[in-house]
Amino acid sequence: MKSLAVMLVLALFNLEECIQYAVQSSPEMASARIEAEKSRAMLNSSRLEYLPSLNLYLNQYFNWGRSVDMQELLIIRNRLTKQSGASVGTSFTIFDGMRRVNGTARGKELLQSAVWAGRALEMEITEEVTRAYLECLLARELKESLEEIHSRTLEKAGVVEALCESGMATRSTMLEIRAQAASEEADIVQAAGDEQNAKQRLAALMGYEAGGPPFEIEGIDTDCLADKAPVTVELRPELSPGIIALEHEISACEYGVKEAKGLLLPSVVLTGAYGTYYSDLSPDIFRNQIRDNGNPSLTVSVSLPLFAGGAAAREISTAGSTLKEARARLRKTLLDMENTLDAAGRECEALRRRAAACLEYRRMCREKEAVAEEEFAEGAISASEYIDARKEMIQSDREYICSLYRYLFQQKTIEHYNSYGK
C-alpha cells in the first residue's frame, strides 16, 4: 500500500486503498485491536499461574520489659530486647480443581474470539467503504452524463436562437429550449453537490482530515453486464468471521463453566520455607545464631470446600447464563447470515438483469432523442415534443447508472464475502 504522504501528493485513491486507510483509521478497529491485546495479556497472566510463588520475609522485633536470660535462667527486668529474622517461602498449587487448566483454555478461546471479531468488523467497514466509494462514482457519472447532455442542449439553444432571430423559429420555441437548458444546469448543480457529499462521507470513513487537500478516486470497470454467468456466493455461513468469533466465545464460556465448577473440588498446595533469626538475648555471635537457628519446613495442605456462602453456586450460575446467551446469539447470527448470503446471490443476479434492461432502455431513448432532434430541425415536431424526448433520455440515463452501481455494489460485496470463504 502506498504511504499516505504519497497519496496526498497524488490526490488519487482506488477502492482497495480507501478500504485499507479506513481499516487503519477506524476507532472501532482500534478498540478491537486493544481488546485482542487485553485478551493476549490475560492469557499470558493465566499461564504464569502455573509457576510457584517465591517470597522473602524480613522482620525486626523490639520489646521493652521483662525478659529471661536463658543461659543463666534469670529474669531481667526493664530491658530493651531485639530480635531480627529472615525467611524464604515458596508455594506451589498441585491441584486446584482444574481451574488453572480451564482458565488458560478459556483465555485462548477469548483471544481467538477477539481476533475474529476484528476480522468481522473489518468486513463491515469494507462494505461501508465500498458503498461510499460507489456512491461517489455514481454521483460523478450522473454529473458527467448531465454535463454532456447540457452541452448539446446549449448548442441546440444557440441554433434555435439564430433561427428565431432570422424569423425561422418562434420565440416560444427558443424559450422552451432555454428553459430546458436551465433545468439541466440545476440538475448538474444538484449532482455536483451529491458528489461532494458522497466524497465527504468517504473521507470520513477513511479518516481523511477535514479541510485537507482535495482528492479524487479512480474509476472501476463497469463493463460487466455482458457476463451472463450468475455471481455465486462461495462463503459458507460457518466460515464467516462473525460466526467463528461467536463459536470461540461459546467455547470460552464452556471453559468458564468448568472453571467455576472447580470451586467445588478440593485443592492441594505444597509450601516450603526456610527461616532463621538473631536475638540479643543470646550471648552467641550473630553468625552462629543465624546458622544454628535455621528452621526449614515443608507442608502439604488439602482444602475441602464445605460452605462459602453460595459463592461457588453463584459463579457457576452466572457462567451458565453467559453460555446460554452466547449460544442464543450464535443461532440468531447464523440464521441472519444464512439469509443474507442466500439472498445476496439472487439479488445480485436480479440487479444484473435490471441493469442490462436499463442499458437497452437507455439505448432506445438515445435513438429516439436523435430522431426527435432531426425531426425538430426539420420542423416535423414541436419544441415540446423534442424536449419530452430529451427528458426521457435523461431519465433513462439516470435509471441505468443507478441500477448499474447497485449491481456493482452487490457484486463487490459478494467478491469480498468469497475472499473469506477461501
Summarize the structure.
The protein is an alpha+beta fold.
Descriptive overview:
The strands form two sheets. This protein has a four-stranded antiparallel β-sheet. The protein has a two-stranded parallel ribbon with strand order 1-4. Helices cover about 65% and strands about 15% of the residues. The model is unreliable at about 1-10 (pLDDT under 50). The chain is α+β, with helices and mostly antiparallel strands and about 425 residues long. The chain has nine helices and six strands; from the N terminus they run H-E-H-H-E-E-H-H-E-H-E-H-E-H-H. It has helices spanning about 5-10, 15-25, 25-50, 100-165, 170-205, 240-260, 285-290, 310-380, 385-420, and strands at about 10-15, 55-70, 75-95, 215, 265-280, 295-305. It has two domains: about 5-50 and about 95-265 and about 305-420, Up-down Bundle (Outer membrane efflux proteins (OEP)), CATH 1.20.1600.10; about 55-95 and about 265-305, Outer membrane efflux proteins (OEP), CATH 2.20.200.
What series of H and E elements makes up the topology?
Answer: HEHHEEHHEHEHEHH
CATH homologous superfamily grouping of the largest domain = Outer membrane efflux proteins (OEP)
Distance between the termini: 22 Å
Structural class: alpha+beta
Features:
15% strand; 66% helix; alpha+beta; Outer membrane efflux proteins (OEP); elongated; 422 residues; 2 domains; disordered N terminus
